[in-house]
Amino acid sequence: MVTKEHISSKFDAELEDIRNSLMQMGGLVEKQLSFVVEALAKGDADLAEEIVDTEESIDRMEMAIDEQCMRIIARRQPTAGDLRLVISISKTVAELEAIGDDCKRIGYALKDIIDKGYDKSMLLPARHLGNSTKTMVKRSLDNMARLDADAALSVLRSGDDIDTEYEALMRQLVTFMMEDSRSVPKVLDAIWIARSFERIASRAFNMSHHCIFLVAGKDLRHRSIDDVEAAISD
Amino acid sequence: MVTKEHISSKFDAELEDIRNSLMQMGGLVEKQLSFVVEALAKGDADLAEEIVDTEESIDRMEMAIDEQCMRIIARRQPTAGDLRLVISISKTVAELEAIGDDCKRIGYALKDIIDKGYDKSMLLPARHLGNSTKTMVKRSLDNMARLDADAALSVLRSGDDIDTEYEALMRQLVTFMMEDSRSVPKVLDAIWIARSFERIASRAFNMSHHCIFLVAGKDLRHRSIDDVEAAISD
After folding, report:
1. How close A63 gets to chain B, by Cα (Å)?
2. In chain A, what residues touch B60 (CB-CB under 8 Å)?
């Protein structure tokens, strides 16, 4: 942990508690992402439904952790590293909640595709993007758990690969639509799925910034990756 | 103001400062939205470029306000209403920053459309959605300034109208694509614009929740509108 031990061991326990809650919530979001990729691979409407239903639990976890964070700030009046920990956790749960929303959107879009006639090959590239995105989210959560700013930096660097994969996928889907106009509604669902993955990746990107802020004590959002690297190796 | 006067008049001044900074940032975001609607109406590539360029200022404002909020928490150790004010402001600037990002995305999409051949009539419904969205953002900011939870509730209620407008617009754009497959790339840009407006509206929705949390002291996200109404009239 970044934080030193406190005179109040109860305060230490509270900080440990919100870290554990964050990791539990992160675990659920990772599971959602695995289900999303699996449901896309199998055209599984029941699993898509389950993904949609699980979003509520993620929302509840966000609100509970957020309240814990507020309570710690009000009662314990943390400063320096402790305050950064609480603030980073609060921001990270907001990103996780947004990823939960996007998983739900993908669940709906997949259900729609299944209604219109599931097409495994059309969804294959989106599934690949889903796998890359899932890995990015997993790495971001691991870095937060291990307080590893260097690894968070390498997640930031991987953003470009996701962008490249996303752009190629979009070009392919646009071609499908232009070649067969009847495919438009179905391909559009695949486009929403791709777009949701791209947004999930950008959430993982943000989470990596929250991790860097926590560990290095610097808010380096909106800076070039090289600037971030220079700043954290200071 | 929700907060009483403090023994330290410097603390009062600091709270007033972050409220003013928030409103200044809100003003800039509103201006961006006006420019977005105007650029869509005129097919104005220079204005689209300006929108893209202005996003950096919005990012900088977010980071500056966020830092002010952290500093107040660390030095002043606010509790109750003061803490809610600081937290709500920090969350609201994150929404405003995201709206800034979406304006930038719209700027890029419009530039793309102009490159492919500007089509005023194709963009007309998206412009209407843009106007509705702009109004929703403006109302959310006004409510935050006036600490008006009831008016924030009515913004939440207006979310359904935006959804209806968005759905109708999407159906229309899908029809365009199916009727003329050559139009697909251009219509897809219009779809991104519509989607961005829908996301901006959902940011205004979130801002209204932050306002309700600040004024009524209750986190009522993810609850039905009727539940929210019952809770704030308690």
Report:
1. 8
2. 222
